[in-house]
Structures are given as structure tokens and as C-alpha cells.
Design a protein that fits this description.
Shape: globular
Number of helices: 18
Radius of gyration: 20 Å
Distance between the termini: 32 Å
Largest sheet: none
Helix content: over 70%
Order of helices and strands: HHHHHHHHHHHHHHHHHH
Number of strands: 0
Oligomer: single chain
């Protein structure tokens, strides 16, 4: 932990981690806020699901696209533009009396203009710390983002049910503005400029480590989404048990990220960490008991943040600096699609076999998440004793004044 303390004392690191967490905090709020609000306005969970699907499709398209735009027009212009449009769309869903098709259209716009904060900050990180600190920084970032997924839904549920669904959406919009302004005003966004990529859009995805990170991220987040659906199905929405179990799941991820953050990254690193997720998930599928799920999902959670940290590191070390933002955009899109398909598969199996069916789905996805990097270890960078920073572009890149 002393090394993390030293890392946070590095100039700007603690501030930019906090700023990007606040800017991304609405990600843990809006899906649930939209679900509750649209269901209340239309009386249909099916309609709410269509709106969420439209939003997710927009986000999946936006990931690599807006990330690439940052290399063409600069981080700040892209972030300011997307933040402005996204906030307007989010507010519109909350306050305007829309039909379901209009809710879907506005939700698609909100997803399409989701500010690319995550690719931006992970592109900036290698320029803020030395090579020895980069992998622990990725681990700290992956661990800290669990706050978004633990606290966000709790805040949304409380505000939406106790005050009103409109206020749940507006609170997310306010946090998006506050976090976005804080992040955009960070000096690092002025000091770091992403060079314009000379490659065609999508070519970076053909690099084996980027494709590997995208596929594993898809399977990992798909498994996590199925687990979440299974926990809710096991305990229902009424009591606190589902929330407690999911919080323990996230605490396991937080702990794993912090304690495994300094382990050197070799060709087997992703597979070993995914094995932890698989074992915990497979054990969880044996019984839908509160204590059993709490213990087994804590074990499964231990592998999640460490897997994400390795994926961020191998992408960073495998592409040119001009391609990092787009590469992270593709990885994020894979995770979004994984979340959608994991939830859908879990829902289908819950209808047929009960809550345990969701854990069967999660177990299969987690097992595939172990097998893919194990078979693809030849394409997995060996970063033991190596710098995880991006490959420098061949021409000098002028720095913008802060």
C-alpha cells in the first residue's frame, strides 16, 4: 500500500483519478435511472429495455469513433462537444413527455455522445508516471472504478424511489457536468496531445493484443453482467440481500486490484486472473444461499480488476501513442456488448431454470475468458521488466500549452 501512496503523491495523479471517476460516475446511474423512469412513464419494462438497448448501441458505436476523433481535433474539443450534447439528451429523457420511439432516439443520441473520458484518461496515464508506476496505476484505476458500480446504483435507487425518477436522472446529469468540467479543465489535457493516426479506422483492432483484450473484456464483463442478473433473481428487488452480495462482489474486485497490482505481467497473467473469476463463479452456481454467494463471489471478484488492469497494460504496450485512444475505445465497446449479451443470456436462462441459470451462463463465459488468453498467450505481451508505455510515434509531437 505504501507504493500506492507514493503513486498518489505523484503530481496530478490523485486529482485526475478523482476527476475522471466523478465524470464517469453517471455511468453507474443512468441505466437504472432510465429503466425506472421509462417504466414509470410507459408502464412497461419492455419499453424501458428498448430504450436501454438503443442507448447501449449508441455507446458501442461511439467508443472507438469519438476516441479516434480526439486524435484529429484534440481531447478538449471532443470532450466538450460530446458532454454538451449528452447532457442535453439525458435531461430531455428526464423532463420531456416522449413516446417510446422518441425515448429510444434520444437514448441513442445520449449513448452516441457519451464523453470518451475513459479512453482519454488511459491515454494520458503513460505521460504522467514513470514506466515502473504505470502498471500499478492501471490497477489502481481499475480498482477505483468499482466505486462507480457500487455507489451509483444505490444513489439512483434512493433518489428515484424516494424523491422521483426525474430527479434521479437530473442528479446524474449534474454529476456528469461537474465531473466533466473538472476533468476537461485538468492541466494534463492541455499538456498531452494525441497525434493524428495515419491508419484507417479499425486497423488497430487487427493487432493481436488489442483483439485479445477486446475478446477477454467482452467475456469478463458478460460474466459479471450475468452474475448481477442472477443475484437479483435469487433475492429479488425488495430486500437488501442482493445489494449486499453485489457490493461484496465489487469489494473483492477492489481488493484484488490493490493487492495484485504489482505482480509482473507475463504471457499467462490474463489467464491466471480469469481462472480466479471462473473458480469463484463456478462455486457460486452450486447454491443460491446468501452466505455462500457472498463468499464465492468475493473470490470471483478478486480476479476482475486485475484482469482489467492487465488488459489496459497490454493494449498500452502494443500500439502507437496515436492509436491508444481508439484501441481503448474498441476494448470499451467489447465490454458494452458483453454486458448486453451477458444480461440477455442470463435473463433467458432465469426464465427457464431460475436464478441458477444465470450462474451457469456466467460460468461458461468466465471459462471461455480463461481459455481464450491461455490459447492466445503467444499474442500476449510479456511485460516483465518491460515498459508498458505506448510505442512512440516516429515524428515529434508538439505539446500544447496548458
Amino acid at each position: 500500500m505504501a507504493s500506492y501512496s507514493d503513486l498518489l503523491k505523484t503530481s496530478g495523479v490523485a486529482r485526475i483519478i478523482a476527476a475522471q471517476l466523478l465524470a464517469r460516475f453517471p455511468s453507474g446511474m443512468l441505466s437504472l435511472a432510465f429503466l425506472l423512469h421509462v417504466e414509470q412513464q410507459t408502464g412497461s419494462y419492455g419499453a424501458a429495455g428498448l430504450v436501454l438497448a438503443a442507448t447501449s448501441i449508441g455507446q458501442a458505436i461511439a467508443g472507438p469513433l469519438t476516441s479516434r476523433f480526439m486524435g484529429r481535433w484534440g481531447m478538449r474539443p471532443v470532450l466538450i462537444t460530446t458532454l454538451t450534447v449528452c447532457v442535453a439528451a439525458v435531461v430531455a429523457i428526464g423532463v420531456l413527455p416522449l413516446t417510446v420511439p422518441l425515448y429510444m432516439a434520444v437514448g441513442f443520441v445520449a449513448g452516441l455522445t457519451t464523453p470518451p473520458v475513459q479512453p482519454a484518461v488511459r491515454t494520458i496515464y503513460p505521460k504522467m508516471v514513470n514506466s515502473r508506476q504505470l502498471t500499478p496505476l492501471f490497477s489502481l484505476d481499475a480498482s477505483a472504478q468499482e466505486i462507480i458500480w457500487v455507489v451509483g446504483p444505490v444513489v439512483t435507487t434512493f433518489v428515484s424511489t424516494q424523491i422521483g425518477t426525474v430527479w434521479g436522472i437530473l442528479l446524474a446529469a449534474v454529476l456528469m457536468v461537474a465531473g466533466g468540467i473538472w476533468f476537461i479543465s485538468s492541466p494534463e489535457l492541455g499538456r498531452v496531445r494525441i497525434p493524428r493516426s495515419k491508419r484507417r479506422f479499425g486497423v488497430v483492432l487487427t493487432r493481436p493484443p488489442v483483439m485479445l483484450a477486446t475478446i477477454v473484456g467482452f467475456l469478463l464483463i458478460g460474466a459479471a453482467a450475468a452474475i448481477e442478473a442472477g443475484v437479483v433473481a435469487a433475492f429479488g428487488h425488495g430486500g437488501a440481500q442482493a445489494g449486499i452480495v453485489l457490493a461484496i462482489f465489487s469489494v473483492g474486485s477492489l481488493a484484488g486490484g490493490l493487492f495484485l497490482g504489482h505482480v509482473p505481467i507475463g504471457p499467462w497473467s490474463t489467464a491466471r486472473r480469469m481462472l480466479i473469476v471462473f473458480v469463484g463463479t463456478a462455486l457460486a452456481a452450486f447454491a443460491m444461499d446468501f452466505w455462500w454467494l457472498s463468499v464465492t463471489l468475493f473470490i470471483a471478484g478478486i480476479g476482475i480488476a486485475p484482469v482489467l488492469a492487465v488488459l489496459f497494460a497490454i493494449v498500452s504496450a502494443s500500439v502507437k501513442f496515436s492509436d491508444t485512444a481508439e484501441a481503448y475505445g474498441w476494448v470499451g465497446t467489447g465490454q458494452l456488448i458483453g454486458a448486453a449479451l451477458g444480461s440477455a443470456l442470463a435473463g433467458f436462462l432465469i426464465d427457464g431454470y431460475g436464478a441458477q441459470g444465470a450462474f451457469w451462463a456466467a460460468t461458461v463465459l468466465a471459462f471461455l475468458g480463461f481459455v481464450v488468453p491461455a490459447l492466445g498467450r503467444r499474442w500476449h505481451p510479456d511485460l516483465r521488466g518491460r515498459d508498458a508505455s505506448p510505442i512512440p510515434d516516429t515524428e515529434p509531437v508538439p505539446l500544447q500549452p496548458s
